[in-house]
Design a protein that fits this description.
Elements (H helix, E strand, L loop, with lengths): L1 E4 H13 L6 H12 L9 E4 L11 H13 L4 E3 L15 H7 L3
Parallel strand pairs: 1-2, 2-3
């Protein structure tokens, strides 16, 4: 399982944008390591974990969909979010239905 969270995830997205959407070097390195072991690149789940304090993806359905598309373009196969917390961190309660709809759940 390969993961990226918070600031690392934002840096990966920004770097990919600068590279014209190409996968980050870490993806190629992981793919090569898997190939050496005789495993397919898609045999490993690649998960992007949004940090507790990340708010921007939840500002609108369009912004969230754009983020999902960018992450998929980087090779991530799954996105996880922190559930809403009493202190206000994590998934904003007002965005829960939007996020569920984006994932057909």
């Amino acid at each position: 399982m390969a993961t990226a969270t918070g600031r690392t995830l934002v840096r990966l997205c920004a770097a990919a944008r600068r590279r014209g959407g190409r996968h980050p070097p870490q993806t190629k390195q992981l793919d090569a390591a898997l190939a050496e072991q005789g495993r397919a690149a898609d045999s490993v789940r690649r998960i992007a974990q949004l940090a507790l304090d990340v708010r921007w993806p939840f500002e609108s359905a369009g912004r969230y969909a754009d983020m999902l598309g960018r992450l998929a373009g980087l090779g991530f196969t799954e996105v996880t979010v922190h559930w809403s917390r009493p202190d206000g961190r994590g998934l904003p309660a007002t965005a829960a239905a939007m996020v569920a709809a984006a994932h057909d759940i």
